[in-house]
Amino acid sequence: MIASRVLALAVLLAAMSSAHAADCPRPGTLGTARVLSVDAASTPRVGLKSFPDTLPLADKEVVLTFDDGPAQTTPQVLAALANECVQATFFMVGTGVTALPTLVRRVAAAGHSIGTHTWSHKNLKHLPPEQAAEEIDRGIAAVETALRGKPSHVPTTPFFRFPYFDSTPALLELLQSRGIVVFGADFWASDWNKMTPQEQLTLITARLEANRKGIILFHDPRAQTAAMLPDFLRYLRDNHYRVVHVVAKPPAANVTH
């Protein structure tokens, strides 16, 4: 079992895209170190807080993710990321997307990945299967409407995160069958708890030092997170961490003979 997982990881590392992101026009910024392409065939679900496996990251590589937006504080988060030339992944809730479609397009225009986080952030584990599937589909359709002008249940970026990280085997199988990668997290900022930006910075940097790498969960609607983020990105830069931007692997081109 262990040998097969090691082999699978080696194949993934050999096949994945690891191209460096475009150079930042401003010297001395953190920047995005590389781009990692994933799909549900090779990485159906990632994040050690929920699953046995995570993304193939090297020591001191991190993936920045933000849940529950868009919100009034999202522009502040975008400004902090842009100031350091960093790309992240936003898992958006459909109701907020419908209320703020221009902001969704702004996130996409800045080069960030946009995944989905259901329509209304209900705990899918406690819903009947058909209602859970509808929550997923309505969330996807909201993002597609904001980005493409018409609803679709096929996401442009097939990334999904369960509210509260509560999944079921049936829903995990459904998402994998639809080619959608399920993201958990390797550690988080616990920013659903009230704290000052400095307290949050102290907490997340301590967890980062303990884990050394991984998928980090933040929430862009939290004012304390938006206020803390510039200092956190500066901490990453000063301590030689590298940001990895996760994108969807393009579908294989059809080959005719």
UniProtKB/TrEMBL annotation:
Keywords on record: Hydrolase, Metal-binding, Signal
Protein name: Chitooligosaccharide deacetylase
SUPFAM superfamilies given in the database record: Glycoside hydrolase/deacetylase
Family, per entry: Belongs to the polysaccharide deacetylase family.
Gene Ontology molecular function, alphabetical: hydrolase activity, acting on carbon-nitrogen (but not peptide) bonds; metal ion binding
Keyword match Hydrolase: yes
UniProt signal peptide: 1-21
GO cellular component, one term: membrane
Entry function: Is involved in generating a small heat-stable compound (Nod), an acylated oligomer of N-acetylglucosamine, that stimulates mitosis in various plant protoplasts.
Any Gene Ontology biological process: carbohydrate metabolic process
NodB homology domain location: 60-244
InterPro entries cross-referenced by the UniProt entry: Glyco_hydro/deAcase_b/a-brl, NODB_dom, Polysacc_deacetylase_ArnD
